[in-house]
Design a protein that fits this description.
single chain; 76 residues; mainly alpha; 4 helices; 0% strand
């Protein structure tokens, strides 16, 4: 089996904006739309669909607490 994949600039939208000399938004979630506006290249449909969904996981976990939180989640 052969699997071939190419990287989309939209996977790294904030970095691509920065490399183009454009202003990078405070929130990464806003970067794809700004990249589209700057380049005229359409956002891939699956990513565009994902961007329109409501976020359901909003917790931010410190690195030191990750193991404990995963175990707690698995046991609940």
């Amino acid at each position: 089996m052969l699997v071939v994949s190419t990287a989309s600039a939209y996977k790294f939208a904030a970095d691509v904006l920065r490399s183009l000399g454009k202003e990078v938004p405070e929130k990464d979630i806003d970067a794809p739309m700004l990249l589209r506006d700057a380049t005229g290249v359409e956002i891939p449909t699956p990513l565009l669909q994902a961007l329109s969904k409501k976020a359901v996981h909003l917790d931010v976990i410190d690195k030191e607490d990750q193991a404990t939180r995963v175990i707690d989640f698995a046991l609940s």
